[in-house]
Design brief:
Blueprint lengths: L1 H23 L1 H27 L10 H6 L3 E8 L4 E5 L21 E5 L2 E3 L3 H9 L3 E10 L2 E10 L2 E4 H7 L3 E3 L9 H20 L3
Parallel strand pairs: 3-6
Antiparallel strand pairs: 1-2, 1-5, 2-3, 4-8, 5-6, 6-7
Length: about 210
């Protein structure tokens, strides 16, 4: 008799315990959704603070963005054999028109160098025709002085093209310092693509 009575009272005691626990920590339960929402906003901000900020030169790009290889976007304003000068366009200002080459100072542009390649003088004309005034995406790999060594992407027609590998495939650049590329997945992927482009160039475009 007593055993069955205890069994009948056990579910009630568990419910009472849970009810008392919720009553005692009701304020915490009410704050929990706000804490989770705040943590989510903080996480999104930490991962997107690079693309959301406006960078005026290569040294403005945080080291965390470089180490994480955060893709950045911009518009090419000037091109030379050694570097590609990009006006960085953050997420919040996508609708703003970039300045003309004559109205922007050199310090207002991020100077990019194509990682893993050494462009030949003949590449300058090709780069100017296909990059000047175009929207590009660049993935920073390392910073050296005032230059950001990056993987550069643009669209040529309907194709999304990696400029680094395209120059090698067209014999407009040679491979350079592949051993200095980061050992991250981004760096290893670029190394593999560059080597494949070099093989393709030797096969289809012999000197």
């Amino acid at each position: 008799m007593s055993t069955s009575g205890n069994d009948n009272n056990q579910p009630l005691s568990i419910l009472d315990t849970v009810s008392h626990f919720i009553d005692n920590y009701l304020r915490v339960f009410r704050l929990l959704p706000w804490l989770l929402a705040g943590s989510g906003v903080l996480l999104v901000y930490r991962h997107s603070r690079g693309p959301m900020r406006r960078f005026f030169k290569a040294t403005d790009v945080p080291q965390s963005c470089i180490e994480s290889h955060v893709p950045l976007r911009g518009v090419v304003v000037r091109v030379c054999t050694e570097s590609v000068c990009v006006w960085h366009v953050p997420i919040w200002s996508r609708w703003f028109k970039p300045p003309s080459p004559s109205s922007v100072e050199k310090c207002d542009l991020i100077q990019l160098r194509l990682a893993g390649v050494s462009p030949y003088p003949a590449s300058e004309q090709w780069l100017q025709q296909r990059l000047c005034g175009r929207k590009v995406t660049f993935v920073p790999l390392s910073l050296c002085g005032d230059h950001l060594y990056s993987t550069l992407y643009t669209r040529i027609g309907w194709r999304r093209v990696c400029v680094n590998t395209e120059l090698v495939a067209k014999r407009l650049a040679g491979l350079d310092q592949l051993d200095t590329l980061p050992t991250s997945s981004e760096g290893l992927l670029l190394t593999q693509k560059l080597l494949a482009s070099e093989i393709k160039a030797r096969k289809w475009r012999p000197w």
